[in-house]
Amino acid sequence: MEIPYTVSTRPDTGLWNAKVGIWLFLASEMMLFGGLFSAYVFLRLDAEPGYWPHGLLNVPVGTMNTAILIASSVTVVLAWAALKMRQFMRYKIYMGITILCGVIFLAVKLAYEWPQKFEHFGAYLKTEALEKYEPYLGNHHLMEKGLPPRVEITGHLHNRAALNDPNIKEYEIALDPVNADPTNPALDRPHFLYVPPTEKIGTIEKADVERATMFLPTHSAYFASYFTITGLHGLHVLGGVLVFIYLWLPVSTKLYKRNPEHLANRVEVAGLFWHFVDLIWIFVFPLFYLL
Amino acid sequence: MNNPPDVSPDPSEHEQYAHDVAHHVKKYMMVGGTLLAFTALTVFLSYVNFGTQKANVAVAMVVATFKVGLVAAIFMHLSAEKKLIYRILIFASFFVLALFWLTYLAWYDPIHH
Q1: Residue of chain A with shortest Cα separation from B34
Q2: Which of A13, A42, A290 sits opposite B46 (nearest CB)?
Q3: Higher pLDDT, B79 or A70
Q4: Which domains does chain A have, with CATH numbers?
């Protein structure tokens, strides 16, 4: 049996069915991500001064990934336009570039950005211990300028065993620039370029620490929402790439020969999903990387 | 019209059709370029001090909303779509707003603030 309205439009809606389907799905996706962003706003507004970290993510890498995703949105729409013009080779090329962009985006996230976070360490200090670690925090300097205080010391953990061994009483951290030179006015606000931890080692007694973890979802509400939202977004990118690969394989060449408009409609629908994924990232990027 | 029209069965019209689609392709490229430029602008503005952190967030969200509007209107063809799709989206937007309203209620707690 032939499935109706894959190419021709239904007289009552004026649409072919898959288009209604994808928009219903995207409407449910709006609510899914809407709920998560709403939770983000809630957590962020509720954070005490100094407890919502800034400048912990790599901005140039994030900017590059944003550009890659935008470029792939352009190429997928060009792939669709090529099909509409019945230029199949061009379609294959544009779709190939789109798939490549999606794969690069995921690779950067999974092989570089996330692992780099898992290697980074942060220790939130108890309020009464803040004064003791003033040489690493520079809070007097910040207060004079009316900036929020620093309550965490970050960097690379030298004695990894300290995480699990209760006999080790202190953390030895290769300090991030901001804790190595906390009164440097150039470091009052985050920078565009990522600067790795310095050679300077800071020692922090466990007794003074409120909470200390690697940069994992357990680290803070910030990283919990970061990993949840970028993780879910990454799954969407993966889903989109898989669909695009299917639309790129020989099975789609067969469909093209049988009914090119049907393939064009499939690409349009997959493209709509892809643009939505891009659209979510346009909000994620400034909220997590920049502000 | 935002969408290129379907290929006409009449071969004599093909040339005109290809010309129309080529025009759309140019538009898609320009929108892509604008989006990239506004990404750079977002990054730049985040290092400008607008007084408070909240002001910086507001500026970034204005730019992001503009970018999202471009993606939705041009790439997703929402600038010229059928009524049913707008209905679906308005319905969903209502619930999205309700989700944010819950956050607002929690934040605007008259007892704690």
Answers
A1: A70
A2: A290
A3: A70
A4: 17-118+220-290 (1.20.120.80), 121-214 (no CATH)
- Residue given tokens 């944010």 in the structure block: B100
CA A116 to the chain's CA centroid = 13
Taking CB atoms and an 8 Å cutoff, what residues of chain B touch A46? 107
B82 closest CA partner among A280, A23, A80: A23
Whole-model pTM? 0.91
Yes or no, beta carbons of B75 and A77 under 8 Å apart: yes
Query: Cβ distance A109 to A241 under 8 Å?
Result: no
What is the Cα gyration radius of chain B?
A: 21
Q: Indicate the DSSP class of residue A15.
A: S
Nearest-angstrom CA–CA distance, A210 and B3 = 57
CA B10 from chain center: how many Å?
36
* Digit-coded pLDDT (tens) for A194-246: 888 998 999 999 999 999 999 999 999 999 999 999 999 999 999 999 999 99
C-beta atoms of B39 and A28 within 8 A: no
| Largest separation between any pair of C-alpha atoms in chain B | 74
> Shortest Cα distance from B99 to chain A (angstroms)?
6
Say if the Cβ atoms of A192 and B43 lie within 8 Å.
yes
Q: Of A18, A34, A77, A243, which is closest to residue B85 (Cα–Cα)?
A: A18
